[in-house]
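Lab notebook page, bench 4
Experiment: in silico fold of construct C2
Operator: M.H.
Input chain length: 720 residues
Purpose: comparison with the prior construct
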Amino acid sequence: MIENLKLCAGQRESVVLQRTNITRLTARVIRAAGFDLEQVEHLTVMDAPNLEHVAVEDLTKMPNLKSFFITQAPLLHKIPPLPALPELRTFMITTSGLVEIPNLSHVHDKNSADSSIPILQAIDLEGNHIKRIPTHSLRVRADQVSLNYNLIEEVPAHAFKNSQISKLSFKGNTKLHKLDDKAFAGNLLLRQLDLSNTAITSLPTKGLEKLEILKIEKTPSLKYIPSIYEFQHLEKAFLTHRFHCCAFAFPERHNPARHALYETQLAIMAQRCGKSNQMKSPEKRERRSTNPDVKTTTERIAYDYNSTESGEDYALWTSEEYFSDSGSFEDYEGEFHDPVNNSVGVTYFLECDNFSLSRRQVECRPLPNALNPCEDVMGWSWLRASVWFVIAAAVVGNIAVLLVLLTNHVELTVPRFLMCHLAFSDLCTGLYLFMIAVVDLRSYGEFFNYAYDWQYGVGCKIAGFFSVFSGQLSVFTLTIVTLERWFAITYAIYLERRISLKAAAKIMIGGWFFSFVMAGFPLLGISDYSSTSICLPVESEGIEDAVYQGSLFMTNAVAWVTIVVCYVQIYRSLGGGGEKYGGRGAAAAAERRIANKMALLIGTDLLCWAPVAFFGITALAGVPLVDVSHGKVLLVFFYPLNACANPFLYAILTKQYRRDFITLISRTGMCTWLVEKYKLNTSPPLTAHTNPSAPAAHVPLVDYQRSVSQITKNGEAEIL
């Protein structure tokens, strides 16, 4: 079935063939539909499921044809080379089966009768199955060319040589991964380029000297953005990564060598223009500026610069005969943007007597934000130095604990078992900080040049995994350690109620599994380790991210409340601060020491978790009170606080650890003087049992039982 629409405008006609079953589009089909070929200006074919061939030679029978449009023709795979169609302005084949780009190079071939050269307003080949672009395949003169949403995988060298294209778009070619270094070379009129939603990893610059608008959105694979000095007229850039905009804001840090060359050429230009102004008279200056065959001083210097920097390709734009078979550049400048002087990255006036310069500002999106500022990983110098002290304390302290606990040939108890897990988790925090600090040193002063490889590489994922895994395992282990102490002291006289080593192992298996799961979610797409340079899952874009981050904060909150409640119970079971003894005596002093240790343990946990949780919750609620720059202070001084303090509070400063340490040293045979000194200091005083000649002290039975009970409790709390 064919539905024909005949639209008349004066004597001209617009042909629209809808839902047609034709297999060949010919002049006969159009005549049969009742149209006069001589009067056809617009030819449109819509929804032609059987169309396989277009008789392009018949298009010459429509001398007034201005637009040719085919859509939804899945069997149309190829279009023969188009003949000369001097009036054609729009050529569109969309959502069809094209597998190659039609040859349009002869559409506007110059004839002897007409010296003007028209330009295609639009070439639209969107939504086809084009996989490759042959060299010189688009040798056309067009204001805009759209190759959106095809299957293009590569753009070869000189694909657009001898072309005049102002706007070029490859948007939606998700398989496009490679652009040859000379892919756009030869197309010196390109003003707008769209490579959004592709898979390119780099962007060549030859042929983009006059580019004004660059779009590379939703293209996370793009690693590196070229220097602003390679885009001499760029005004707007719409990119994917925020750190790429830093390259335009800080060109001297982005490419120091290129910036130094720019400064040198700028000084030469200023010097030459100064000499030229002294030598030229106003009459000569006016005459030179109005003569198109003579370059001004500024233009000549720009020509020299480009010839030196990039060879002939840079200098070709000044030639009036660039298109040897197409006429001069001046013939088209009315259809394209006004020609812009080829400057060296700054704005100049054409005449040296008006010579002035200012840094060119590029409107870049997305702008750096609180999560991705244009700064180094650590941001401040004092923070960069401080982090190494934190790393040393965390790594050395926890390695010392693991070394002593794992090398002593003594019976493995539940406290020792839990201490090993705690030390390992805190050691992972130290390793995370070490990775961050090393990246900061390597990328000092120009992190945005390394941001892609770091944030989207394996290193950041490993660092982020270490961070979340160690944090969750440390919190879990601290909670179990506290519960074990509370249970042991509360039920001190019931030895059968103690937590067994087997039960502790099962509990810690659950803790490891929980920590692995929480650290693995960002690797599966729930939140993201790549959202910031410090590799923490801080960005929340969906409900899943919010739930995940809220779970992390709630875990810390529940753990801290549990620890506080348990230590309060432990403190009460030990006598409540010496009230039973009137605040006097050795027992009261011992209880005060235990209370101070408990307060220190609870305080370090609070300082570690509370600031991070508070600012994290405010950010999750949409009202962040601190940005990443200041949040790094939390990262260095609060977040790893437990990793630094735990090995000392829970192990190194306890009597049991010192005893194990001396035992380890004594087996090595070294530092015998230290071993003897420790034995001397820890030898018990002489009593009636050790010295029979001394009279034994009489102790009432009630007081004796109380003393035994208190000693038992103090012994259980000694690990505090």
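Observations: The longest helix spans residues 585-620. The chain is about 45% helix and 10% strand.
Next step: discuss at group meeting.
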